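Q: My collaborator sent me two sequences in one message, no labels, and asked for predicted structures for both. Can we handle them in order? The first one she listed is below.
A: Yes, handling them in the order given. First sequence, followed by its structure tokens:
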Amino acid sequence: MAMPNDDLTPAPLRVVQWTTGNVAHETVRAILERSDLELVGCFARSASKAGLDVAELVGLDAPTGVRATSDVTALLALKPDCVVYTPLYFDADEVARILRAGVNVVTSCEFLTGRSLPPGQRELVERAARTGHATIFGSGMNPGYSAMLGAVGAAISRDVRHVKISESVDVTLFAADSNMDALGWGRPKGDANHARDVEHAVRVFHDGLDVLGELLGVRDYERRCVVEFAHATEDLNVPGRDIRKDTVAGIDVRFIGMIGGVDRFELHQRWVMGTKIDPPWKVEHGYLVVVDANPRIRMKLDIWPDLDDLSKLDVHEMHAIGMRITGLPLVNAIAKVCAAEPGIRTYGDLPLVSTSLAARRRGA
């Protein structure tokens, strides 16, 4: 019987973590757990972080031997295969520089197709990727990974008339998160500009709608966005937010794809700050896929903490779970992104993205 030849085992893909915020706390852990990935560098904007071991910046117990730097040239000189790009905001010039250097990018940073970027930025990124023969892939839980759930749900039916993916969550525990700042929690009832501002704040969901459309075989469609609000029935005690009676304490956003003037697929977000709201919206506390077809499909994705005693669940762990389901779709896509054709790629272009049990390091 022939024995495996270790010389034929591919070398680990070399990875740089770009910024060390909340999502990085999860992506760095996931990279270090994988035998097919090697963390070789880390970018940090703050001068106070430069020179520190990544472990200090993302809360690990043991040092990694990788120190953060703000020297972009030095990081690109490492010839990484991929950058895990997780700042709060997308910097098209910065990303273009990485791509022109021939380095692939996976990102959670409000980028899926690039169509919701300011004018000219998508073209800049696409051109840089072509020049560097590199690939950029954006995901996260929603929008991003959730589109695959819709595609899977629709795959076992015929006469598919409508596909809807809903995220329905009480976000009270995340109220203080900076991602919530632009949504306008606590704004007065009847604010005429609020719906417009919400659509702009979460405009990357238009990209998510594009990804779902591509997975369903649709590229040419009309789109619309519908925003509704629920209001607090009393002053709310929400850490990090000032939400008074009759101000916004619930936001419902629908991004809808229409074909021939008929609604055919949809991304639906419902976020509430507790239950003391009017109207008293139902919240599923998870992700729901509903396919109007033959047969009709209803799929529910519940996400539970890895705890035997749920009484030990706290705000820190809830926040970590949110960052985990945002960052892991990136890490798990690295190998397929590195093997993909250059340019902007989505779930519609890649083979099925999942974890790799075989690549788990011993003891991890």
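Q: And the one she listed second?
A: Here it is, processed independently of the first:
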Amino acid sequence: MITNPNVKINLGLNVLRKREDGFHDLETLFVPYFGISDTLEIVVGDDYSRTSAALFGRYGEPDGCAGEAPMLAQGISEDGKLMITIARKEGVDWDPLKDLTAKAYRILAEDFELPPVKIFLEKTSPVGAGLGGGSADAAFALKMLDELCGLGLSEEQLASYASRLGSDCAFFVYNRPMIGEGRGEILSEYPVSLEGYDLQILTPEGISVSTKDAYSGIRPHIPEVPLREALARPIEEWDGILVNDFEETVFAKYPELAAIKRSLYDSGAAYASMSGSGSALFALYRM
């Protein structure tokens, strides 16, 4: 089975307060974006498909260790039930067995008797860009395993598993515009429409922002204009009231991102913002 996990943008991202468990309460609107995606294949047993074979053709033989950022890295679990191969042009600088797709398999294996599987992931979505590419991979892996293994899980059950993998993973189970609250895992549908606008995303090369760094200087607060009230206004009025709280911290460290945002407005954008904890920026242009 092959799918293409897409990314998302955040329309507004308010960091409201720090919680006793160390996390923060947030409010944001997740919106799926299908113009950037990875390729994820999961096969049961020993079968291989054209996609997995094509990975080897494009990236060469896999390296069993991701320490030197090979273009193709592979890991096999100790029990031999999970093999995961990850390909990325910029290099794979993480352990494939610690990838969220591998964790998705293991979290389901805690409750179900899963067959041996092989996961093939071609990463084309940027890492550390605030677009949720890794979370999308994990959520899609959960949905694929549910279908392949006949688990019969509902969207709500899959979202519950996904929320244990990452704060925005549950959104990708539904993959439609939703308000995220709590850590981002408390979701409610929101009928936003970007019809009549062209959405463009910029992913600056050489800048990868870790979520930990983005939170390092954050100042939780209640916004003057609540998220839903800001979203209800015309898009041309969003600037200044529909805010991503991470911009203050991230722009201070990477002033070039602030300059890019200014250039988006200079080029005629009706609204521009950073997505998630950065570094990607997006702009809405009236068509």
